[in-house]
Input
Amino acid sequence: MSAAPAAATGLAIEAHGLTKRFGDVLALDRLDLAVPAGSVFGFLGPNGAGKTTTLRLLTGLGRPTAGTAVVAGVEVGRGGTDLAGRIGYLEQDPRFYGWMSGRELLTFVGRAYGIAGSALRSRVDEVLEMVGLVDAARRRIGGYSGGMRQRLGVGQALLPRPPVLFLDEPVSALDPEGRRDVLELIGRLRGEATVFMSTHILTDVERICDRVAILDHGRLVTEAPMDELLARHARPILELDPEPGQAMAVARLAAALRDAAWTRDCREEHGVLRVVVTDAEQAAAESLLLVVAAGVRLARFEHVRPTLEDVFLQLVGTEAPGPEVAS
Amino acid sequence: MTGFGLLLRKEIREQVRTARLPVVVAVFALIGLLSPVFARYVREIIEAVGGGQFQGMIPEPTVADAVAQFTKNMGQFGVLIAILVTMGSVATEKERGTAAFLLTKPITRGAFVGAKVLAIGTLLALATAVAGVLCWTYTAILFEPLPAAQFGAAVGLVWLSLAVVAALTFLASVATRSALVAGGIAFGAFLVAGILSVLPGLGTYMPTSLWGAAHLLALGTVPDPLAGPIVVNILFAVAAIGLAWWSFRRQEI
Output
């Protein structure tokens, strides 16, 4: 029940065979995880994949049907307050006491972690500044918007400077500016704390996460450093951007590209043909011939770097995930 | 019980800031104040409304009527309020997600349960005491002074009966995720206790029977049995709270 094991292994979160069943539904199936200390870890998966269930098990709110987990050196489910004292947790769609003000809530959280006096006051001021709620600090939380509640949620999770932070969809309710600010805030924690965040916004994960795990139907599909994941799973992609006003010809080209032996997937996104190929050399040699044969004039033809979304679609085989409902 | 003091302060501030404390105390104060007033003037009211047809049919009210009115009102409105203030105490926190917010902080589940139980018990005790003081004062003004010590003990019995109802409601609130369901279960249990209270022997030990004992005690008569029903009802409350704590410790939030 000490932090020694985490320090010894260099891992902030470990899960072995973590399984959760709700009646006949297998929500999580023998999940093994190893999250290095100090990393920003992205946890992805389509709706109902088991992300929120995993977070609830790792924070001690739920009980696994089987398996074990160790967070910040504390075995999860051992009872007591050791685990809670070392984590910060932001729920998806966080709810707080509407009668408290933002400042009162942060003060309450600080006291729960044993912070008091001037240290607490200055930390509360600092966190209010960090999450952009200085002006609303004295207002009742009941009057906060969803985005303000989410900012406050991030703030209360950060306040005690926990070694491990669990963030469930931390930016889902924020506007673009708020999202950028909070993501920068999370990114700055790298090396100081371990951040375990689930999100459905793949570009956010790509922007700030060092490592990524993808969960599907309760099973871990892959887990690796971001660069390695992109290199390992992403197939070459061609982007063909036709000039406007050639709908018929572009449709012919799309059909021809889909029929090509080296094409794995061909989709039209906002007028641009995006072709995932299995054989880059053959594709390079033959794709322009197909363009000429279809009589399409191109504004752009490019080999592009595969994104996390491409990897996600390849591994999970569904559209990019939407907001998840706790299961 | 890590975090007990912090949570108790939170509960009390919540009672004040959401106006629960002043509203409950005000309603109980009205019960205490109006019970002897109603007992004193009910004859005049009925005779006035009846246009003289009830003249002389209703006996002169006595101090016993004031006490009976008080215990009856506390047994109806008091119980209803005890259920209302308790039914959402845990269920609503689980439903809204604030329980998850709290329990991922260094706060034990025992502290969570203990702070709520103490806050609700104290609120009911304060409100019942205010009702008792007002009832005693107005009874003294309108009828005659009741023996203060015995009346105080009677008010204590009324509080015990409300505490048992609140404890059962609390257990229901822990067991469910809906305040309405918890309230329904508690009200059902209260009705069952009311039905059982007419049974000879067993009935004496039901929380609803404490009002009859309180009525006698307030008038200066020590009911028999008294100690047995008090002990049994304390055990009811302790068992319900203990079961709630045991259940909550094992629950997934």
Remarks:
- The interface with chain B takes residues 56, 59-63, 80-81, 84-85, 87, 89, 91, 93-97, 99, 108-109, 111-114, 156 of chain A (CB under 8 Å).
- DSSP finds eleven helices and 14 strands in chain A.
